Amino acid sequence: MQTDDLTGDDLVGVLATLANPHRMRVLAALAGGRNYVSQLARELGISRALLQVHLKRLEKAGLVSATLELSEDGKAMKFYEVTPFELHLTPQALAAAALTLTDPNDVEKD
Amino acid sequence: MQTDDLTGDDLVGVLATLANPHRMRVLAALAGGRNYVSQLARELGISRALLQVHLKRLEKAGLVSATLELSEDGKAMKFYEVTPFELHLTPQALAAAALTLTDPNDVEKD
DNA sequence: GGCACGTGCAAAAGATTATTGGCAGGTGCT
DNA sequence: AGCACCTGCCAATAATCTTTTGCACGTGCC
Predict the structure, then answer these.
(1) Domain named HTH arsR-type: which ranges (chains A, B) (predicted)?
(2) What DSSP string describes A15-76?
């Protein structure tokens, strides 16, 4: 994942996702290796519910990916890992991204 | 300005600032050259009040800087220009930044 | 059955952002 | 004086994000 293969809107989404202390810590933790939800929650010292919300946001932004696995003793465990990415942000890169932003005047609701 | 001379908290602030379509357009416009508030508002097609708020946020994040100047005919005009920056975001860079995040358990209110 | 693990989801409350509209001030020109 | 520019700020609303609490479901083991 790279700066210029994202649309302006997607880039905004990714940046918004990164701009949160919890999610930054989650990403940091996963950068050290894959992990499953409950364990990750314990390591970060936050509730599982809260972590889930953040993980979903990270996943939607494409920054992490999940795999549901069965442990040896038969428990369903969801492992997350970081998607490698490399965003290079400069005024020029942002100017280019801005060109592909959705015009607020023709946004359609579902 | 670079990724690793920011604290984790500052980085979160910068990312949050960038993660907005209006601000991205403002930055894009200023990347093409300095400009003053009213003119910029006209070019972007947004209200001056709204632009001001976004410019302040950009300035607080250190992404733009302002200069108050007097035009030839005596009018006070505030010119903004982009601060050159180059943020390189990777899982590793974020992991490093996460180490300097403020612990939510010892935040003090004013 | 009762625990100790794992998962998921959703409603509600709290906190923060985004946006508008109005009003203040200033200059110079006719 | 009245108009056309420039600036700044604030109060109120609307919209969005964050966090908690509680419930549901599953497994294996004593």
Answers:
(1) 13-102
(2) HHHHSSHHHHHHHHHHHT--EEHHHHHHHHTS-HHHHHHHHHHHHHTTSEEEEEEE-TTS-E
CA atoms within 13 A on the CB side of A16: 15
CB neighbourhood size of A81 (10 A): 15
pLDDT of B106: 53
Has residue B104 been placed in a domain? Answer: no
Q: Which nucleotides of D are covered by protein (CB under 7 A)?
A: 5-10, 17-22, 26-29
pLDDT at A104: 57
CB A34 within 8 A of CB A83: no
Number of structural domains, chain A?
1
Residue B16 sits in a domain of what CATH number?
Answer: 1.10.10.10
| Residue ranges making up the domain that contains B25 | 3-97
Whether the predicted model's global pTM rises above the 0.85 cut: yes
CB pair distance less than 8 Å for A94 and B24:
yes
Ranges of chain A with pLDDT below 50 = 108-110
Query: Per the domain annotation, does B109 fall within a domain?
Result: no
Phi, psi of A7 (to 5 degrees): -75, 165
Give B48-88 pLDDT, tens digit per residue.
999 999 999 999 999 999 999 988 888 889 999 999 999 99
Is the residue at A107 inside a domain? no
Residue B94 and residue A21: Cβ atoms within 8 Å? Answer: no
What is the mean predicted confidence (pLDDT) over B79-104? 93
